[in-house]
Every structure is written in C-alpha cells, then in structure tokens.
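re: ur question from the group chat, yeah i did fold both. here u go
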Amino acid sequence: MDFERALATANLALTPVSIDTMQVNLGKLCNQACRHCHVDAGPRRTEMMNRSAIDRCLDILRSYPHIRNLDITGGAPELNDHFEYIVSEARALDRHVMVRHNLTVTLDPHPVNGKNMEYLPAFFRDHHCEVISSLPYYQEHETDAQRGQGVFGKSLESLRRLNALGYGVRGRELLLDLVYNPVGAYLPPDQEAIEKQFKEELWKRHGVVFNRLYVLTNMPINRFRHFLERAELYESYMQKLMNAFNPVAAEGVMCRSLISVGYDGMLYDCDFNQMLEWRVNHGAPGTIWDFDVDKLLKRRIVFGSHCYGCTAGAGSSCGGAVVK
C-alpha cells in the first residue's frame, strides 16, 4: 500500500506548483454527525478557530495576493462565531470565497447557543460566496442513510431558498455546487454523467437547480475507515483504490496548489492529512504564524495510503474529479 512507490513506478515526482487556494477549517462543531465524515465532526465537538488565528489568515491573504481563493470548511463553518467576519473581510480583499455549507445548518438552531441561522442564504448572496453543499443522492432514502433522518427534506428546503435568491440559476453569477460521494464502499461514477442525472432528477422531482456536481471518493480515514473495518471491507476497498490508480489523476492532486489550515493554525498539505494530524514537514513552515509561500512551495508533500483515494479513476479533489 506504499503510495510513494506507486508514484515512483509511474515515474512521477509530485511537488507543489502553486498556492492559489487557502482552505481554512473553522472548527469541528457541526449540527450533523454523518457516518462518512472524515472530519469526525458533530454537535459535541468543541474545537473552534479563534479570532486571532482568523486575523492571521486574513493577514496572509493580504500579504499574498496570488492566493485568490479562500475555501472555508468545518464542521459546519457557519457555527464559528467569527464566520461572518472572515467572509466579509476576505471579500473586502477581493478574494473568491467558497463555503462548504451542509444546507441543514440554515434550518437547525445553533447546537450550542440556539441561534437562528435562517439568515445564511441572504448573507451568502450579499457577499457573493460560492456555496458548495453535500447531497449524497437525489432521493430521500440514500441521503438520510448517510447523513441522518430528515436531512434530505431539510436539504431540499435549503436549496429552494438558495434558488429563490438566484443561486444555481442559469445566467446568474451566484454559484451553487453540489457534492456527491458514494453511500458505500465503492468508487464514484463518471462525474459528467451523474451531474446530468442529478440535474434532471432534482428539477423534475423537486424543482431545484444547481451549477455543478463535484464527485468525491470516500476517503478511507476516520469515521469511514471505522465503518469499513467494522464491515470487514477495509482491505478490499483499499485494493479497489489501488487497482484504479491513475497517473494522470495523480498529476492533478489538490495538494500541489492548495494549503490546508487547521482550526488551531497548523498547516497541512490537504484536508485529509489535517484530519490525520499529518502536518507539513521537511523544514517547511508548520503554522500560520510562520507562513512563508516561498518555503512552502519547496516543501516535500506528505503522502500516505489514503492518497490512493484522490488518484483512483478520474481522481478526486475538493473540486471533484481531476480528469475531465
């Protein structure tokens, strides 16, 4: 299962090529506890990025104008008390802001303070955020099986509210993207084909529209790995990923153009390494406090067996399939 050996066999040396996206995890608190969640997020998690770390992230964006994208994730990032602040300040810096929004957080009260979150769609619109939301399937059974009872109905209601404000509507600039990942231990289908299917079915059944569908491979770490091990499927799933290794997809992995920031300010090559607590190393700056793009571009990326998930088939990244 040595991923670096697979790279060597394919004569690939994957080094950083840029840092055009800074992905920031605002915390692990979430109103849901999805069974596939690689973050292990949930209503009882207390880890949260503080204002000082958020200000430092904004300082980095201010110092490095070529980092054009701020990708905000969690947990449910909106549950961080400083969520609106980081969004508004990043937009003031003319950055493209992407929010990993689980849809139901709009309708559920804040799990800690009970705050009403129904203002979120209008906030996203007013700050021209790209909204990226997970929807395991266009039918209720599959979605609720992965994300919890009643999630599908709430997700549809939230999507309709976003549509009503212009999100996902053809000809409008408000981007609404959905994320699909398989319910079980198998590889996702072709992205273009299932996007077409999702668009047809969501419109026909529910009158919902969106822009793009990102297809992600379930990563064999944390909560999903525990599921695989309990079901005695881990070895066979890993073999499936290894057999589908695609050198073309490997060349486009997201860690070559992204840096991941943990809620505590630590730096990682990607969101998955962050959840494994595999920090950047080999002499590269390890935190936002000593952030240095030039040094980070010379770092050696930390790989592991889970990286087969990003390089299987058409590949998988935070922006969906790598090979179009």
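okk and heres the other one u asked abt
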Amino acid sequence: MPAEVLSLLALNRALLDRQLLLRQRPPPADGARDAWVIETVEHLVGLQAQAPFPPYYGLWSRLAGFRPDDLAELITGRRVVRIALMRGTIHLVSARDCLMLRPLIQPVLDRGLSLGFGKQIAGVGTGEVAAAGRALVEDAPRTFSELGALLARRWPGRPPAALAQAVRALVPLVQVPPRAVWGAAGQSAHTSAESWLGRPLASSPPADQLVTRYLAAFGPAGVRDVQAWSGLTRLREVVDRLRPGLRTFRDEHGTELFDLPGAPRPDPATPAPARLVAEFDNLLLSHADRSRIISEQNRKRLFTRNGIFPGTVLLRGFAAGTWRIARSRGAAGLIIELFEPIAAPDRAAVASEGERLLAFAAPDAGAHDIRFAPAA
C-alpha cells in the first residue's frame, strides 16, 4: 500500500504542536515548576544556547506563565547545563540528557576538531591534551583563553586557541554560572560535566533513543533531517532498525518520512497563533528541508546576517519576519521587521505577542514600544 502523503501544512502543524508552539504548555497544577521546565527541555532534546539568553525566550514562547527564575534556578542548581552537543553547538539540556547525549554526539565533535584544528595540533597526542585540559578545568573553571594559555606552556609553539578547542571537543565541558543566569553577567568558564554533575557519562547509550526522541520533538521527518539536526552521519541503518516500530509517510516531493505511531499529527487546518521564537531556535535549524517552517526565499534572508540568527516572527505557522529588543534610557522597544506586508488583523496579533514579550523581558522598563520596520 502506498504511504500516506503529508502536505506542507500537515508537516507544519505537526512540528508546531510538538514544539509546543501551537498550544503552549500550561503551568503545573501541583506547583512543581522545576519538573515542568525540565520535562519541556527534555522533550525538546535541549534548546540551542549559543548565546546566554535565547533558552529563556525559547521556553517563554512554549510555556504559559514561564518566569526567568524558573530556568535560572535550575542552572545554578546544576539540574540543567550548557554544553556542546548537536551540530557541535552549545545547547541547554537537562543534567540527565547531558550525560546521555554527549557520548552519542562525540563523533560530531571529533570531526569538527579534525576539520577545524587538525593541522594546528598535528603530532600532539589528543589523549594527553584531553587529560591535561581535564585536570586544569577540574582544578578551577577556566575560560578558553585561560585554558589555552596554560596548555601552551606544555605545548609551546602550538596555537593556544587550537589547544583549548581540542579540549572542548575531547572533554565534555559545561559552562558554569553566573554565565547564562538571567540578570547576571559572566564570562564563559568551563569545567567537566562529570565534575560539575558528580556523575559519569552514560556508557554506550543507544543511538535508537536519539532518533525516537528527535521524531517526538520534530517529526515526521526523514533520515537527512535527523542527520541535519544532530550532525551525525550514517543514521540510515539506525532508522532501518527502528522501521518496524515506526509509521512511514511521504512528503509532497516523495521523500520518505518516519514517525512515532502515537505522535500528534493535527489537522492541517488547525489555526496557528502568532509567536515570537528565540534567536537560534532549533525550530528553524533541525531539518534538511526547512520548507515546513520557512520558505527558501525567507531562509536566505534569515541566514545572511553575519552568522547571527535573529529572533523569528511566526505568523499562520510560518516564519514571517524577525524581532529584536532595543533598550535606551530606561525604555524597552521591540523592533519587528517583516519579510512582506501583512493584513491588519495579523499585525495586531503580532503586536499583542510583542507586548507579552516585553512584559517578560523588560518588566521594569519605564516604557514599552513596538515598532514595525520594513525588511531591509
């Protein structure tokens, strides 16, 4: 029997639902806010965290009534951490996922080290660098600048930055507070995950779990999508092993898609509310074919800004513009730059969401202002 074909709208609504952007998750009736946030972070398989504060906005857009302290206290309490994971980029994940995901993603970091710094550290024993780096960061959290300078004493003539990046790839380094604590400031200082969490990394965790959790948060999806999200290769054999327990579909171009049997796939006609999602949000980064959330034309606009991935406006389910907050003299302004003109009701819906964002991000500002600017 031919596989069911899922339309672009069907894939869009499924993604939004699983990303908690179709309907936000309500606060817990029992008041257990820590579990509420951690369960969300784990459902999403982490939040992209290249900058310190996008995860706060990522959770705000998905959790009704989320407060900055809900996450800040988990960071200081060592229940969530920031560490290099999928695609070799920094993600905020639960302590439990940190210990499970890092061994699975290690090949991505090994490949990145070889491609980016292989020539600069050629002839240096990676095991020795890892051991020396681990000892240094476990003695005291170090910035990469500090770590590289200390390592260069042992390996003179080698670029300190390359030595520090070798440790980043070979040792699971977490960034310690006050970095990424809302309202605080601090440099990116690192120690090992094992030292910070007091537990070892998982031993040989199954790649199957990585795939099924991806599908729960981002599916239905193809093999290339899972690989684009994770940075791993050769996942076809993992998906084929899981195939008997998965549902299969096709998209409108004939690409084979996989999904968990009980995963939600809403009616494509389900209304999608206006949302403002975080900078670097995985919503827009986790598929090889991103047309389910952003058109190719708009993707090019979004990805040509000096490597900075801005906050994104979602309208009727798809990326429709960008947003940023500007502060001056005690006031906070939200600048919304749309890709194209929109109807008055849609504009009002985006502005309403903008007011909610400013109330979250700048509650003490003397004034809030929302400005719509044409695309550059």
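fwiw on the second one: The longest strand covers residues 318-328. The two ends are 49 Å apart (CA to CA). idk if thats what u expected
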